[in-house]
């Protein structure tokens, strides 16, 4: 039997937010909230370069998938600034976004945040 490689995107409520604007260009993040999320505060996984939906779903995690500026158009310091701005958005705006997406049913546990990424080039 062949493995099913279909991503479970339909099991999430998904919303896109602008977390910053650079030279009139918005930079986005996607918020993935499992549709079956239990009541209460949930841990957060901030993920750069997408993926990991199955893990988020199995563990009732709030997934924040972020865009950021890339080299060579930008430099490493620009990327670090984008990461800092994502963190600021998570600290200041994620709870409000969650309240909207879950009708106040679930929030975020900012004491349990995991940041993940992968090699983004040479």
TrEMBL record:
Residues 54-121 form the Alpha/beta hydrolase fold-3 domain. SUPFAM superfamilies: alpha/beta-Hydrolases (SSF53474). GO terms for molecular function: hydrolase activity. It comes from the Eukaryota. This is Alpha/beta hydrolase fold-3 domain-containing protein. It comes from Fusarium oxysporum NRRL 32931.
């Amino acid at each position: 039997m062949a493995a099913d490689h279909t991503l479970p995107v339909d099991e999430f409520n998904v919303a896109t937010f602008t977390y910053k604007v650079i030279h009139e260009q918005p930079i986005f993040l996607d918020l993935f909230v499992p549709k079956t999320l239990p009541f209460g505060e949930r841990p957060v996984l901030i993920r750069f370069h997408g993926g990991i939906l199955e893990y988020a779903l199995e563990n009732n995690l709030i997934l924040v998938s972020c865009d950021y500026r890339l080299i060579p158009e930008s430099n490493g310091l620009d990327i670090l600034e984008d990461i800092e701005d994502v963190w600021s958005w998570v600290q200041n705006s994620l709870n409000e976004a969650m309240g909207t997406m879950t009708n106040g049913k679930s929030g975020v546990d900012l004491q349990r945040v995991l940041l993940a990424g992968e090699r983004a080039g040479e």
